Amino acid sequence: MILFFITPFYAVFALAFGTIDPFWRDAIPVWNPLQWDSASFRETLQKIIIPADMISLVLLVIAAFGIYYLARSKSKFRFVYMAVIVIAWMVSWHFIHEAMTAPEAAIYRPAFVRTFMFVIIASASCLVLGYPVAYFVSRYGGKYKSIYLVLLIAPFWISYMMRMLAWVNILQPDGYLNALLSVFAPGKITYGWLEGHWFTLIFGIVYGYVPYMILPLYAGLDRINENLLEAARDLGADGRRTFFRITLPLSKPAILAGFVIITLPMMGDYYTKDLLSRRPTTTMIGNLIDQSVSRPTGKGEAAALVLVLAMILLIPMAYYMRTTTKETERW
Amino acid sequence: MDTSNAPLAQKRRRGYFRNPWRRPRILQAITVSYLAWSILPVTIAILISFTSGRSRAIFQGPPSLRWWIHDDLSVLKNPEYRVAIKQTLVLGLSTVLIAVPIGVLFALAMNRWRGRGAQTANFFVLLTFVVPELILGTSLLIFFTKLATFIQLGTMAQILGLVTFQINYPVIIVRSRLLSIGRHYEEAAMDLGASPLQSLRKVLLPMLYPAIFVSAVLVFADVIDDFVIVRYLSLGAPTEPMSVKVYTAARGSPVPAINAMATIMLMTTLLVVTLGSLAFRHFAKQQQGEGASVTAELASQM
Lengths: 331, 302
What we know:
- Chain A is mostly helical and 331 residues long.
- Chain A is 74% helix and 1% strand.
- Chain B has two domains: 2-48, no CATH class; 79-301, MetI-like fold, CATH 1.10.3720.10.
- Chain B is globular.
């Protein structure tokens, strides 16, 4: 099994760092790591990111950390820190400006930025939507708890394709959503929800992944000892304070786990976009990979993009693995 | 009476928010509407498969089986769809038959063989859970087209790809069950004169049946729904299972036959899961009290 798992990844590396056939323009894998050539990988990387992006990102991160420390420190050097931050901001502004104005070479960059935006918006919406549901079921489920749980798990057994197909039906120009809206508005509404709108896509992603957020949230909230909540109430905290001082901090690991569980597949999602919006204006990283894989000569670029995606996801994956291993050891 | 009523209602409303033991009506409303929102679209999609019109957007009565059996483009009469159904079943069954035994052996080995080897194996089992399917699918495709070219794309490659990452269900479930059983039973059997193999086969394996069964059900259900890996490793239309057909037809096909197909997919999964949970209950009744812990472990795994 390990053979079947490691060798494909190795093949990806070999292809991403391989050479390109001069005649067919197709990528040729190079199996010897000593002969790896990063030219084609760098070529792909240049389509994603330009140096100004990197520099401005790094400077912004430095500035953000600086402000964070400045807010807490009472050091007498804090004016020096402040000066450093201001300079960092100004310099990064220069690079941001450059990054904004010269993006022609980086044809894949918009898709990357878009994917991050979409994933952030969608996972935040999943939390906002999922937390109350998980909270209600875990605390007030009462005798209906098992029914609620069955309904919460039901989407797991319905294939993702089926669930997206359902929305393709409903969002048609003559579909049920427009029919419903026509009741409230004068005239007949035939809005093309599926004509490449970012909000339809985000809506679809939220619909697709929110069950995967709710279950870990539920598990985390259900584990909270009710005695703690009662103690907080006995000590005079009102409902809101109990929630913000006890429940929310205790559910933080569950929230993080939920985020990781949904953002990992979201980052590699391409089918939601293919089904709910076909315009290139909503292309995500997953679509870039899917499109290059489908192109006869695009396998090398696909391998490079997969590596970039894997690198981006390294931190959340490592986090998830660490927490899960810890839990397994507890058994 | 009217004049005194209004302040009372107002007071009562204010009272509702002051009362620390109030019924959480708002939360309940959110939960119920969320559940409706999550189930209703699928119900509508199933309903549309029984339409008698051509539109995929709205249901046109009376209910008919036109897109199931009657029309030339229906699921029954369209050869492409029949092939897809067969392919899904072939993939599901063969993945279960390959992945579950290997997974059980793997779990047994990991349980016995502690140390670094087991840790590495555990790492890879978890990794298959975490890595997005797109990354797995692309690397498997590159693997089969560039390195293992002796394996043709198509059913064989699909099964191998599916086994690679479906193996983690039996491994994780059986392993957690093994941990909860402990080694006492086996040791007792060996004290009574059973050989290690006998104690494994006659004592341990029957106790593992529920866990093995659950993992088989999970693997089968997951293979039916799997899409990314199967699509990349398919070789043209004859090896595309139902999920891939739904993907291609969702925006391409103008008729609701695809809804019928998606309904078949859903029904297959639900059937397997229902049968699985019934059989699981049967097993659990045989082994009083043991079943509950497996369910709890399963719930924590999901």
